[in-house]
Design goal:
Layout: H1 16-23, H2 25-28, E1 32-38, H3 46-59, H4 64-79, E2 84-86, H5 91-98, H6 102-108, E3 112-116, E4 121-124, E5 129-134, H7 141-159, E6 162-165, E7 170-172, H8 178-204, H9 218-242, E8 249-253, H10 261-268, E9 273-278, H11 281-293, E10 299-303, E11 316-322, H12 325-328, H13 331-341, E12 342-354, E13 359-361, H14 365-379, H15 389-395, E14 402-406, E15 409-410, H16 419-426, H17 428-431, H18 437-452, E16 457-459, E17 462-469
Parallel strand pairs: 8-9, 8-11, 9-10, 11-12
Antiparallel strand pairs: 1-5, 1-6, 2-3, 3-4, 4-5, 6-7, 12-17, 13-16, 14-17, 15-16
Helix pairs in contact: 4-7, 5-6, 8-9, 8-11, 9-16, 14-16, 14-18
The structure holds S-adenosylmethionine.
Length: 472
């Protein structure tokens, strides 16, 4: 079944379109934080459970006992001190859109929708509830945590349902363990707050460097943060192969909004030092807020153009650069610049992509066409830079470069599945050189719909890692 994302993040219309949008919204709406309440089914992915429940509910006849129970929950929520209002569901619109009678629409779509004036929205269905809140406005995590805890407890009492957080991929229980809930919820809220802050700073920020292909894109900060989280385990794995870094000095060139800063901070430990360098001050501001939140104190952030670096030559035990060659496309120059910063005996680590494994299953023709168009843009720059890493490392004196490759399977609903769409915003001007505005708009709509379809999973591009030690 296909669902369509809201046309605007502030879309609060109700009725069938809104309700259908909510079905797989966690997979397609980057602008809301979604939680579900349901009975866990042993061995079943909770997101699959939600989808199965929705289908089952739609097919079943209305049950007056359940309707009465949901009414009581809604009344209890309406009676709490917070300001909930009940949405009027437009059954006539649902009927018209689905070609059924109003009575049939009433029977099939029998949820209750409540909206709280802080933005929390609750949809009560027969066998599950959906709780969500937008994060494009400034958020008050304390208010949200209280609101969600109260609401979920009111819902849990008569239903026995548990609160599931698809962002954290776990059940959280505010009633049983207040600390764990606060911590888990805090992680999620901090994450969305960072994104909201980055968006607004990027919206008003002045970019320092115009040549960077993906520069000046609000979505770029969000993408880089997510990307860093996705690839952290592979970075840690590589660092473990290099041996101990404790007390060392490490540099992440073009660190972006996060890059390798966190894992390098762990690698060098409290007695070591990490430098995160980037040409773009907005990126560094985003990185700074993340470092503060995580209370990481051994990282220094500096504005530096890698092509005219002011960093001290031969002063780092490890220099790392990821996804720099593909968008900048000056591989030899770039690697020579990194090489100058490595101490004798130190390591140079490069990570770049090879796009060949970037697929969806079942195939998603529009999203895959976007990938092909993006590949053509990158082909004119650094291309599939990962494939050339060994050669580049040899050219700067690493005799036998080490090499590794990783592909990550992305489960249905994983936010990194949306990467082609995020790139399509960041690279819009370039894409419009190849396709018309209308064609791009319909490709995006179709790709959104494809990614919203239940069960579609994917594989990332291949991350190629090349590294080695450098002599004097
Ligand atoms: C594709 S992003 C990768 C960010 C980060 N390495 C990661 O993997 O998440 C490229 C980064 O390089 C930065 N950059 C672009 N041109 C640069 C230059 N000449 N010197 C230093 N950084 C640059 C951009 O601002 C951006 O943060």
């Amino acid at each position: 079944m296909t669902s369509h994302p809201p046309t605007s993040p502030r879309d609060t219309t109700h009725g069938s379109s809104r309700e259908r949008q909510s079905r797989y919204s966690h997979t397609v709406r980057p602008l809301s934080y979604d939680l579900y309440m349901l009975s866990p089914q042993p061995g079943e992915d909770p997101m699959e459970t939600v989808e199965l429940l929705e289908e089952r509910e739609e097919a079943a006849a209305p049950d007056p006992v359940i309707a009465e129970r949901n009414r009581r929950i809604a009344d209890a929520l309406l009676a709490t001190t917070s300001n909930y209002t009940e949405s009027e569901i437009e059954f006539d619109v649902i009927a018209e859109q689905n070609g059924i009678s109003v009575e049939e629409a009433r029977a099939k779509h029998r949820c209750i929708e409540l909206t709280e004036d802080g933005g929390v929205q609750i949809t009560l269905s027969d066998e599950h509830a959906w709780i969500n809140f937008p994060y494009w406005d400034s958020l008050d995590p304390k208010h949200l945590a209280d609101e969600i805890a109260t609401a979920s407890q009111l819902i849990a009492l008569p239903t026995g349902w548990q609160l599931y957080d698809p962002q954290l991929e776990k059940f959280i229980d505010p009633a049983r363990d207040a600390n764990e809930f606060a911590e888990a919820f805090g992680v999620g809220v901090a994450h969305v707050q960072r994104i909201a802050a980055e968006r607004s700073s990027a919206d008003t920020g002045v970019m320092s460097h115009e040549d960077y292909l993906l520069a000046n894109q609000p979505t770029e900060l969000e993408r880089l943060r997510l990307q860093s989280l996705v690839w952290e385990p592979t970075g840690r794995e590589l660092l473990s192969k290099l041996g101990g870094g404790s007390g060392g000095r490490a540099l992440d060139v073009g660190c972006g909004a996060m890059g390798w800063l966190r894992i390098l901070s762990d690698w060098v430990g409290a007695s070591g030092q990490v430098v995160g360098a980037d040409i773009d001050e907005n990126m560094l501001n985003a990185a700074r807020s993340f470092l503060e939140e995580d209370e990481i104190t051994n990282v220094e952030l500096v504005v530096d153009d890698l092509f005219e670096s002011k960093l001290e030559p031969h002063s780092f035990d490890l220099v790392h650069a990821r996804y720099q060659i593909a968008p900048l496309g000056r591989g030899s120059e770039q690697v020579a610049s990194h090489r100058r910063l490595v101490k004798p005996g130190g390591s140079l680590v490069l990570e770049e992509w090879d796009l060949a494994s970037w697929h969806f299953n079942p195939p998603a023709p529009a999203a895959e066409r976007l990938i092909r168009l993006l590949s053509e843009i990158f082909a004119g720059l650094g291309g599939e830079a990962g494939r050339g890493l060994r050669e580049l490392l040899r050219d700067v004196g690493v005799e036998e470069p080490e090499i590794d490759a990783h592909v990550i399977a992305l489960k249905p609903g994983h936010p990194y599945l949306r990467l082609p769409l995020q790139f399509s915003v960041a690279l819009e001007a370039r894409l419009l050189e190849a396709v018309s505005e209308d064609e791009l708009a319909s490709l995006r709509n179709e790709a959104e719909a494809e990614l919203a379809e239940a069960g579609r999973w994917g594989t990332t591009f291949t991350l190629i890692q090349g590294w080695g030690r450098l002599g004097g």
